[in-house]
TrEMBL record:
Keyword Lipid metabolism: no
One Pfam family it belongs to: Na_sulph_symp
Protein name, entry field: Anion permease
InterPro entries: CitT-rel, SLC13A/DASS
UniProt topology in membrane: Multi-pass membrane protein
Protein's organism: Lactobacillus kullabergensis
Family assignment from sequence similarity: Belongs to the SLC13A/DASS transporter (TC 2.A.47) family. DIT1 subfamily.
Cellular localisation: Membrane
Transmembrane segments: 12-29, 35-53, 60-77, 92-114, 135-153, 187-208, 229-255, 285-305, 312-329, 341-363, 375-395, 407-429, 462-482
Key words of the record: Membrane, Transmembrane, Transmembrane helix
């Protein structure tokens, strides 16, 4: 007998209450703000709260928000042009023409090829074989592995859950280090914590490193700042390189493994590579296609060639993988994460654009600018970065956090005189490393904080220390580096 799918109806209570309350006080809205602007704000906030309480998966939650937007008359189904003025009212169907959403959807499909061919595991075993003679060496190997996978796999949760955590767990148990046991401190706790921070670094290095990065790029575009694959990488490479050297050392000092020498790791990796055999033809093709995509992404950021649009490059790569038989159309259609992100990212960006077109963001930035009159932009930007970091304690989703605060914070920074490029990139990077807060900060945190290798108190305590280090590295070194390369 068929039954209905489970729906978390209790999860609707808070977003519905927030939305209704905000909607009902529309007549009491601040001066200078139109009714449609406030009503759109009410729906947007309710949707973001829904992304946190999760009555439905994020794709379903945002879809409900979009439906409400149409039902209350804040957006039509399709674009409508006013016959008198020629002004076009953007319809909801235009939301799904968002290039960034399609880029990351195609990147998800490409990433499946890394898993299907076994290329990701081969890279992991090779890294451990090369650098795994000491426990700190394995820590650096895991970091290097994550940085490589950051360019190949656009989901931070997929990188951790699909490749890095299985490797980390296998090495830990090979040294008789088990979860929920005193032996966890032999090496398992250290490697698990290192894997998490390696994921943070890989997320910060690439614009395709995680969904919140793409949200930031789309929100920045609303303020006429364009983030490309190469511009993001260029801005991130030096602070990430510094953090890649510093973070493993700090973790090794404050949360050290009992086992310092790990000669068995090299043999473990060698044995796994032997089991895999020679590099296969699908792995070779996958490598070449992804290398081609990286080269074209770099060129698209250097030269203004329409055919090298970054989203088209992703389509091209998927097409090549289909033509060569590395992937099938069934493989592509089965990547539910790709199609899910296509829906929710497109909808959230569309709703944010409506806040702009109705004048809410402009009103908000001018209001804050007035209240901060006389305060230097440097102080304002520092405060905004710190707020972007520490307010993540209240969010269980990097995407929801970025969607809720990035554009308003960027607007405030620019309104007080802060350089657009510096503000856009610093706030975007903060949205990547603010996962160094809680055990529920993002997907990788939820995976690695619940393995039994790290106690919750340890997670919060050591992450608090490392969070300060991230703020200093990106805030000081990152700011100076972006000055050198002309971002501001």
């Amino acid at each position: 007998m068929k039954t209905l799918e489970k729906v978390n109806y209790k999860g609707f209570i808070l977003p519905l209450a927030v939305g209704v309350i905000l909607w009902c006080i529309t007549p009491l809205r601040p001066a200078g703000l139109s009714a449609p602007a406030w009503e759109m704000f009410a729906i947007f906030v309710a949707t973001i709260v829904g992304c946190i309480t999760k009555p439905l998966p994020i794709g379903g939650t945002t879809l409900i928000g979009l439906i409400v937007t149409v039902l209350v008359g804040l957006a039509p189904i399709k674009d409508i042009a006013d016959p008198k003025t020629g002004k076009v009212t953007t319809g909801i169907l235009s939301a799904f023409s968002n290039s960034a959403s399609w880029l990351i959807a195609m990147a998800f499909i490409m990433a499946y090829g890394i898993s299907k061919t076994g290329l990701g595991n081969r890279i992991a075993y090779w890294m451990i074989k090369r650098f795994g003679k000491k426990s700190i060496g394995i820590g650096y190997a895991i970091t290097g592995l994550e940085l490589i996978l950051g360019a190949l796999i656009p989901s931070n949760s997929a990188r951790t859950g699909g490749v890095v955590w299985p490797v980390t767990e296998s090495i830990s148990k090979d040294y008789d280090s088990y979860p929920n046991d005193p032996s966890r401190k032999k090496i398992g706790a250290y490697l698990s914590f290192m894997a998490f921070h390696a994921n943070i670094l890989s997320t910060a290095l690439f614009i395709t490193g995680a969904a919140p990065n793409m949200v930031a790029s789309q929100m920045a575009e609303q303020k006429n700042y364009n983030m490309t694959w190469i511009s993001w990488f260029s801005a991130a490479v030096v602070p990430v390189l510094v953090a890649t050297i510093v973070i493993p050392l700090v973790i090794y000092k404050i949360f050290p493994p009992e086992i310092k020498e790990t000669p068995n790791a090299e043999k473990w990796a060698t044995d796994h590579l032997k089991e895999m055999g020679p590099v296969t033809k699908p792995e070779k093709i996958m490598s070449m296609v992804f290398l081609l995509a990286i080269i074209l992404w770099v060129l698209s950021g250097v030269f203004d060639i329409p055919q090298l649009d970054s989203t088209f490059v992703a389509f091209l790569a998927v097409g090549l993988l289909l033509l060569t038989g590395v992937l099938t159309m069934k493989d592509a259609l089965n990547q539910t994460g790709a199609w899910n992100i296509l829906i929710w990212l497109s909808i959230l960006v569309f709703m944010a654009s409506k806040l702009i077109s109705f004048g809410f963001i402009d009103w908000f930035s001018k209001t804050i600018q007035t209240s901060l009159h006389g305060i230097s932009w440097q102080v304002v930007l520092v405060v905004l970065v710190i707020l972007m970091f520490y307010t993540h304690y209240f969010f269980a989703s990097g995407t929801a956090h970025m969607t809720a605060l990035y554009l308003p914070f960027l607007s405030v920074a620019v309104a007080t005189g802060a350089p657009l490029g510096l503000s856009a990139m610093l706030l975007a990077f903060t949205g990547a490393f603010n996962a160094s807060t809680t055990h529920y900060a993002n997907g990788p945190a939820s995976i690695l904080a619940t393995t039994g290798y790290i106690k919750q108190g340890e997670w919060w305590k050591y992450n608090f220390i490392l969070g300060i280090i991230y703020l200093l590295i990106f805030g000081v070194i990152g700011t100076l580096w972006m000055k050198v390369i002309g971002i501001w």
